[in-house]
Design a protein that fits this description.
Structural class: alpha/beta
Number of helices: 11
Strand order of the largest sheet: 2-1-3-4-5-11
Organism: Nonomuraea solani
Strand content: 15-25%
Number of domains: 3
Number of strands: 12
Keywords: DNA-binding, Transcription, Transcription regulation
Protein name: LacI family transcriptional regulator/LacI family transcriptional regulator, xylobiose transport system transcriptional regulator
GO molecular function: DNA-binding transcription factor activity; transcription cis-regulatory region binding
CATH topology of the largest domain: Rossmann fold
Distance between the termini: 68 Å
């Protein structure tokens, strides 16, 4: 039998055994194991390396704190609120509190984050549109703290994760515009390192290809999932000699940027420009006009991630490591049939 972080031929080590191997006191090893910060970086690295190599076995069972650690790259807009609602719903049913961490627009936690998590000893960690480096994942695993990725940045591989059908969303948004007669359809993507952005772009390209419409590279705008990014790309697209008659923004924030660009340029939505977003955040039904968008079930995704996390914490097997929830096209008033299209 192989313990997490250990080898098949040897059982994981106790604090005393790790201290003997490292040539330090048991108190020093205990500080590293429990995320205390008052240990020299070289000593901490040595002890963490030994834990990764041999594993760690506590001398007595320590129950985790009744906490779920929820990690966001940024706490802005409706997106994190919808995620937090889904996590809180499941956590509340299991008498767990939720602790929020914000990475200040970084997608990998910085210095000191893992020590804080280890000192809190949460039931588990959910990382939203962010990830952990290999050392951070190892440190959680060796302490028995499960990790679930929600809306992962990249292909999660064997890591436990929850996402949405982003490719289908890109396909559905573009098909909707094609069905309305649009052929000059632009897209404002998210960052190219994001799995969701790449999948939505692939869905867009597939829909165009299936309709026999050549994808024009000039109509593909590289965004960053922000309102400002959507505004900048929309202004560039709408100033082209042959501008688009429709824009698919790969999230609702960028769609708000498209609205602002259209206003600045004197264009009316949907009379002069059709717009589709992605997410279906609560505010989109109150824009003028209300936004046609792809509904990504954020709260349901978060609830699924939390349920998976609790199963892992209880030692229950998962039927599969990846769950992908479906999307829906929500048609409102920001899209219209192209003039003179029959």
């Amino acid at each position: 039998m192989t313990a997490a972080g250990g080898t098949p031929s040897s059982p994981p080590l106790t604090i005393a055994q790790l201290a003997e191997l490292a040539g330090v006191s048991t108190a020093t090893v205990s500080k590293v194991v429990n995320g205390r910060t008052e240990v020299a970086p070289e000593t901490r690295a040595l002890i963490e390396g030994l834990i990764r190599e041999h594993g760690y076995r506590p001398q007595r069972r320590v129950s985790p704190a009744p906490l779920v650690e929820l990690v966001f790259h940024a706490l802005e807009g409706d997106y994190p609120i919808e995620i937090a609602k889904g996590v809180e719903q499941v956590a509340r049913d299991h008498q767990l509190a939720v602790v929020l961490s914000e990475l200040q627009h970084r997608h990998i936690p910085g210095k000191g984050w893992i020590e804080g998590v280890l000192s809190r000893r949460p039931t588990g960690v959910i990382a939203v549109f962010s990830g952990l480096n290999e050392d951070q994942r190892d440190q959680l695993a060796t302490r028995g703290v499960p990790l679930v990725l929600l809306d992962p940045l990249d292909d999660p591989g064997p890591q436990v994760s929850v996402g949405a059908s982003n490719w289908n969303g890109g396909l559905a948004a573009t098909r909707h515009l094609l069905d309305l007669g649009h052929r000059r359809i632009a897209i404002i993507t998210g960052p190219d390192f994001a799995l969701s952005s790449r999948a939505r772009l692939d869905g867009y390209r597939t829909a165009l290809d299936m309709a026999g419409v050549a994808a024009d590279p000039a109509l593909i705008g590289q965004g960053d999932f922000t309102v400002e990014g959507g505004l900048a790309q929309a202004e560039r697209l709408l100033r082209l000699p042959d501008p688009p008659t429709a824009i698919f923004a790969c999230n609702d924030g960028q769609a708000m940027g498209v609205y602002r660009a259209a206003y600045r340029l004197g264009l009316r939505i949907p009379d002069d420009l059709s717009v589709v977003g992605f997410d279906d955040l609560p505010s989109t039904q109150w824009t003028t006009p209300p936004l046609t968008t792809i509904r990504q079930p954020l709260a349901e995704m978060a609830a699924a991630a939390t349920t998976m996390l609790l199963k892992l914490a209880q030692g229950e097997p998962l039927t599969r490591p990846r769950i992908e929830l479906g999307i829906d096209l929500v048609v409102r008033e920001s899209t219209a049939r192209l003039r003179n299209f029959r």
